[in-house]
Design goal:
The chain is α+β, with helices and mostly antiparallel strands and 69 residues long. It is built from one helix and three strands.
Length: 69
């Protein structure tokens, strides 16, 4: 059986489109410099309101990745 050790980082992604897109933006950017990303957990969702409408989404997430041997 293989044992895994995970490290957690906290990221905040933003998007004018949706909270889902904000998560995807954060994961995609982190994947440019962090290897072995395995999972994420959304810990906070915020937004900016302009003229009575949601203008921007901001999502904070914990991201787990495996450490290399």
């Amino acid at each position: 059986m293989t044992h895994h050790v995970y490290k957690l980082i906290e990221l905040t992604g933003s998007s004018p489109t949706s909270s889902d897109d904000a998560v995807k933006v954060a994961i995609a950017k982190a994947s440019e410099s962090v290897r072995n990303i395995q999972w994420f957990e959304v810990t906070e969702t915020r937004g900016h309101v302009a003229d009575g409408k949601v203008a921007h989404w901001q999502v904070t997430l914990k991201v787990g990745f495996t450490l290399e041997a």
